[in-house]
Design brief:
It is a single chain. A 5-stranded parallel β-sheet has the order 2-3-1-4-5, with helices on both faces. It is an alpha/beta fold. Helix content is about 45%, strand content about 10%. The chain has one domain: P-loop containing nucleotide triphosphate hydrolases (Rossmann fold).
């Protein structure tokens, strides 16, 4: 069973195991240029995977779970950056409605599952019940126990029916989580990422750790195993997760049908509407360039 790394002693550099995440020290962070080059290569492979999914009418589900601030959202953004939103979509469900609370727990998630030729990335998933709902008391003990019993059955049904299911747990230490939370508090562009529930998770660190361990005991099954992503270094985590996802699927490069630009037809006398009859957006860029020129730069 995989363990959360929040309380473990950081390994020395000499004890790093080849192929496994290294120690959480600045010197071991992936350099920016190396990261950008490899990320672009992996994203090109993701496009190939997308075309294979579409051509083979496959169904791919990728579940992203983990601590608040562990880097799930940023990784999902990089995964989908160059993908067709008609093929690959993100499922990030809000709190359930009154009607959904009265339905079978998995029902609202079933509605989000992919059809043939589609990819769905769950930014949090049905595992809410094993985590935040359980820890915060949003579900009963009976509902929690029922989830742990039904979840492996539910996932086996998906896999047996041909769905490709991949589950990733993003792990981050207490210190790094707090640092990222403080960064969000001080950055107006990231402030929206913080919620009272996120802050509450800091004071319930051990409760969430126990819930995660219990979740793994019941749901880390051969048909749909959990894969842990060490996310102290966001760049490393993104590269590791995407590379692993690609390695688990036997996709091939599906060559698209060749396209040829048609010749433009000859003009037939069309006259464009007068410029003055249309309302254009103000040229904000021109103002910026004028200001830069006036500053002598």
């Amino acid at each position: 069973m995989a363990k959360d790394h929040g309380k473990q002693k950081k390994p020395e550099a000499s004890s790093t195991v080849p192929g496994q995440p290294g120690p959480d020290t600045p010197g071991d962070r992936v350099p920016r240029k190396l990261y950008a080059r490899e990320l672009l290569r992996l994203q090109a492979e993701l496009v190939k995977l997308q075309e294979w999914v579409r051509a083979e009418h496959a169904r791919l589900v990728v579940v992203f779970e983990g601590r608040d601030g562990a880097g799930k959202g940023g990784t999902i953004q990089r995964v989908t950056q160059y993908l067709n939103p008609r093929v690959a979509r993100i499922a990030a469900l809000p709190a359930p409605t009154e009607r959904e609370r009265g339905s079978w727990y998995f029902q609202r998630y079933v509605a989000q599952l992919p059809s043939a030729g589609e990819i769905v990335l769950f930014d949090r998933s049905w595992y809410n019940r094993a985590g935040v709902e359980h820890v915060m008391g949003f579900c009963t003990k009976e509902e929690y126990a029922r989830f742990l019993s039904q979840c492996p059955i539910f996932e086996r049904m998906l896999v047996e029916d041909g769905t490709l299911l991949r589950k990733y747990w993003f792990s981050v230490s207490e210190d790094e989580q707090e640092r990222r939370f403080r960064d969000r508090l001080d950055d107006p562009l990231k402030r929206w990422k913080l919620s009272p529930m996120d802050l509450e998770s800091m004071s319930r660190w051990e409760d969430y750790s126990k819930a995660k361990d219990e979740m793994f005991v019941h749901t880390d099954i051969p048909e749909a195993p959990w894969y842990v992503v060490e996310s102290a270094d966001k760049r490393r985590a993104r590269l590791n997760m995407i590379a692993h996802l690609l390695s688990t699927i036997g996709y091939r490069d599906v060559q698209p049908a060749p396209l040829t630009l048609p010749p433009r037809p000859k003009p037939t006398g069309y006259v464009r509407a007068p410029w003055e009859s249309q309302t254009f957006v103000p040229d904000h860029a021109a103002e910026l360039m004028a200001g830069r020129s006036g500053a002598g730069r």
